[in-house]
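Write out this protein's structure.
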Amino acid sequence: MLDRSQSDSLSSRPPAQITPQQAQTRIFDFLLDAVKTWSPKDVLDEFQNLFFCQGDTTVNETSEALYALLLSGTATDFHNTLKRSCYILVNNWEVARQVDAIQSLVQLFQDETLQRRTFSFSLKRLRGWLCDFIDSDDYRELQLFASRLVNDHKSTEWTSRYASYLMVSQYMNSDNPIEQREVARAVSRRLKEKFKLDLALYTAHSQSTLHQTKLLENPTALGDSALRLIKLIVARRGQFSHKNLANLFLKQTEGLSYRAFKSSLLEYLIYSVSQPMAAKTLKQRVAAKLATLYKEYDYAELDPSLKLRTCNRIIDQLMTEDKQRPSELFTLLLSQNNALSLAIILLKIILISRKSHLYLEARIADLIRYYEGFSQEQCTWVINFLEIFQVTFAIYAENVEYNLIDLQDPRTVASNRQGTLDACRVFSQLTKTQMLQPELMPEGEVAEASDA
């Protein structure tokens, strides 16, 4: 049935003499001012009136700007305007912890009137472009923000456990509006912080004599094997800890030619890989990659940019080389039950190239998107790797220090032998040391790391 009852105030207005870019600026400025001075309810009402044409807006200039955008702008102009408008509100409400307002904003797009027919050209275009936005990845990302802000544990999607990595990929995408990138960074860090602290509390509490009466929830999906994994990772301490080996590698490769650096990098990455098959596979594949990588610089002195690009290329080989599908080496290593070895190698790369951390997490996001179309049962081995990766990097993250104590002889450093680990307890304490937090870089450096 045609929608004759609604008055279309847009169609009765004279054409506004402003460009699409001027219209966008006018809308953005209005929303920035409104979200800081109005109540969330008033802002939502105005947003609904403006973009969904439910009634007259209280600010004529803003309504005229939208009309100009509908007349002379493109679908892309409208899409980008709506996207940034949403994140102007989300970013400010996220800072003010107005989670309900963000939820209400997302729900506005379920308006049934969008499916009604109308005689009005402008209203028809508006509804069509709104429906296109709802069908886009940008709207799904907006829904992801809203669901994670309320910590929606009821989500049936297994990928929701790894939302922090999907947020990183949004932060690194320079095509996204600055408001979206800022809120993505904030939410990602908060999710990682929560996982890190939950893991530390669970680790301490699971070994307590009181744990039977008040058991904390295991933040991992690894079940009872989580504590064993933590002990294995923490056991590598002292002179041959991953951090110490990384510092030693950086000192020894100062001033080397690029060719010599690549040779040393291979040995550094393979060193301490305990599984013979994994070590052989990695040595063959990574050596072949490094042999041809940036050969034109083989006899030049290594510089920070070249080191960053090289580390990122190895991450590509280990994760996804086309940013869409898993790499052959990733699939091979996991099929051989080498998830921990892969996680440790990625950790070793980040310890020598801090600016590769965000790049790595963006590649994790690529893999999550690839596998999200599969059921949880089909992705058991991938989920196992993601859980091991999360635990490994949480242990080497900032603010929490893990220590493994042999209860039979507290003076000794625990080894990774089964009997020794069973007799050990893990202790954690808060520290001020910043160990492995992804660096927050200016937009230019983020783009460089992303493209490197």
